Every structure is written in C-alpha cells, then in structure tokens.
Amino acid sequence: MSFEAVTVHGMSTSGNCHKVRLLLEQLGCPYTWIEVDSANGATRTPAYLAKNPNGKVPMLERADGGILVESNAILCWLAEGSECLPTDPWRRAQVLSWLFFEQYSHEPYIAVARFIRGWTPVDSPRRADLPRLIERGGQALAVMENHLRNAAWFTGDAYGVADIALFAYTHCAEDGGFDLSTYPRITDWLARVRATPGFVPMPGVSDEVATRLAFSRSRANT
After folding, report:
1. What gap in Å lies between CA 6 and CA 31, rounded to an integer?
2. Torsion sign across C-alpha atoms 185, 27, 25, 80
3. Whose CB has fewer CB within 10 Å in the chain, the N or C terminal residue?
4. What are the tens digits of pLDDT across the range 46-95?
5. How far is CA 216 from the centre of its chain?
C-alpha cells in the first residue's frame, strides 16, 4: 500500500472520480483534491492534455510527477498491499473481471443515462438513447443481483476495490432512470458499503442539475 501524498484531479459529482476519493479516505492516504469542471471543458486545456492526452478525469499525480489515469487502475495501485485487493492470483483475477465488467457492461449504460438526464438539455437528441441505456443497464444490474444471491461482496469474501468500483454509479442509478427498489440484494449491498469504516458519500449534483432531473422525471410520468 502506498501512503505517499498524491494529487487527484477530479470532478466530485463523477462516480469514476468518487471511487478514488472513497478509497483514499478509507485507506487513510494523504491527498490533495483539485476540482476539475470536466463537463465544461476543463480537461481539454493544453495544460491538462499535456499530462493526460485522453482528456478525462480522474487523474492521479504523484509527487515525482508520475501520472496514472483510468479510475479502476488507480484503485488497484492505491489498494496494493491492503485488504481491499486480494493477493491470491485467482481471487485477484476475479476482482479484475468485475472491474472490467463495470467499465464495459455497467458504466457505459448506467453512468451515461445519468449524464444524459442530468447534464443535457431536456430537448437534447441524446435522450432518444435512454430506452436502450435503461435496457442494457438493467441487464448489468441483474448480473449484480444474481451474484449477490450467494455472496455479500464483489471482492471475494470481503469489501474491496470491486465493490468501490461498482458502488460508484450503482448507488446513484436512479438519477439515470433505474428503479433500484426492484433489486433488493443490490439495495442491501449498497447499505453494507455505506456502513464500511471511513465511508464518504458522493456530493450531490448542483441545484441546476437537480432541477433538470426533477423536470425530466415529471415529463416521464406524464
């Protein structure tokens, strides 16, 4: 486990960024948080792109200038040597499989639905994608619900990085139009995550985004 001070460039309302903050807090690692308004182009400036040509958050910067990007890669590096990341090769591979699942089969639907409903105008053409996103995101949630029939966690026998990765956008999936009440095992798991030592919640969306979400919900119900 690394306890060197790091700097994290992130957007607090981003689930991918909150993963990193949550693990840092729970491990007790010293860090500096630099808020980056990625929704309004702050990751596309020449200075930012010089460090991360992919122009995304989160970005972790070490004191020696080393840069690490991609949220789940950052989780694995931070968790090395801790109970949050198994050392056994087979168990670690199982964890990695959930991390890949989160980024390939979960986040592209659940997080994108949340973004469209919360950060785009109510007349945006992107809202036509919501039915497909809800369908595919529901499939991902069903996979998680099924796993939790026989397991309490996604990181083997205990809480760890796979749980953090999946918690990030699952806990706010209702912002994207998903009904979590239909997934009782996921609901129970979310409560277990919130009860882990050092847990910190993800900051809420801004008043403007909250208003858009409320308006979107009202239109969907008419």
Report:
1. 5
2. negative
3. C
4. 999 999 999 999 999 999 999 999 999 999 999 999 999 999 999 999 99
5. 22
Amino acid at 75: L
Q: State residue 31 phi and psi, 5-degree precision.
A: -155, 160
Separation of first and last alpha carbons in the chain: 52
Q: Could you tell me where the DSSP H helices lie in 120-160?
A: 130-147
Ramachandran class of 84: left when φ > 0, alpha when ψ lies in -120 to 50, beta otherwise: alpha
In three-state secondary structure terms, 115 is helix
Rounded Cα distance, 142 and 126, in Å: 25
Q: Which pair of structure tokens corresponds to residue 56?
A: 């995304």
Confidence (pLDDT) at 213: 47
Cα angle, residue 129 at apex, residues 124 and 133 outer, rounded to 5°: 135
The Cα–Cα gap between 152 and 192 comes to 9
Domains of the chain listed by start with CATH number: 6-79 (3.40.30.10), 89-220 (1.20.1050.10)
Instruction: Find all residues with CB under 8 Å of 196, minimum gap 6, and list them.
Output: 26, 159
d(CA 198, CA 167): 15
Whole-angstrom distance, CA of residue 78 vs CA of residue 26: 11
Neighbours of 189 (CB within 10 A): 25
The token pair at 5 is 């001070």
Question: DSSP 3-state assignment of 66?
Answer: coil
**Residue 212 binned pLDDT confidence (cut-offs 50, 70, 90):** very low
